[in-house]
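My hope is that you will study the protein record below before we discuss the fold together.
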Amino acid sequence: MTPEEMETRIVRYGDLKPCRTAFIDAHTPGSDQKENFTIIGGGVSESPDQHVHIKETPGFNIGAAGQPPKCRNSLHSHTTAEVFYVLKGRWRFFWGRWGKAGEMVLEEGDIFNIPTGIFRGFENIGTDYGMIMAILGGDDAGGGVTWAPQVIEDAADHGLVLGENGVLYDTKKGQSLPADVNPMPLLSEEELKAFPEPGNDAVVRDYVARYWDMMALAAGNPCKVIGENALLKDKPGFEVEFLTRGSIPDTAYKLNCHEILMVMRGHWKLSWTGGEKVLAPGDTCAVPPELEHRLEPSMSGEASLFRVMNTADPAGPTWIG
């Protein structure tokens, strides 16, 4: 593989192209400054304006959300995995039918494997623009998003209508539902009863890993974050590991699966027969299966990254203990 070919498999943080009309709450006050990024795969965007950086999916999708302070993402549910880690800023995650069943605050480097089948939302509670990186289960993550009824109603009041076909129509731009497309129906009260309302204890215990705990656990070997025998014992169709300068392989290695490198801190040198590249914080690199390569920090100081690998496990759902 040439350096030029590898570069096409790297999405640089500085090259990310945002979409500001990705979701139904794009006009709703409090949510109308969100930026959505689709890095690998189509993600869950409802907008044709969304730019996809790498279209080939490795069995899961990679995306990101960028938001200024006090901006929030509205309550929605997924049938497959939705995993976030905080790249920049301080974020509050909340869940439940009205977003009041539980909440937690995540700092930079913390990771949250949000249980499937619950309504969830999040907001930037920091003082600067914040960024969270996302791993979404399955090749077609867009098929498993359900919005809380009040989100659809609020969006309609501000000019956005979601069709049953999963496409947004912006009445402020003169758009309307096609004659053969009905509006997305609201969930009934009976249907809403099927959505769990777990409290903080169960969710924090089983679905959250803190950055400095992972740093300590990865001092000698990669820290298994999501997967079998991992900190968060889930099997959502992918595994997540956390690596530091003390836990990277000593020699060149290759895997028989897709390997997505997502840099959290520091600069990392990726080398292989034919070239090398340096990855910076926020960069995402899709290393192809069977490519022998080596990974090492390119300078002194704190260095950490998340490594995501596809598995044969189904994409979801997860369980709530």
Observations:
- Residues 210-310 form a domain with the Jelly Rolls fold (CATH 2.60.120.10).
- The two ends are 45 Å apart (CA to CA).
- The CA atoms of residues 55 and 140 lie 11 Å apart.
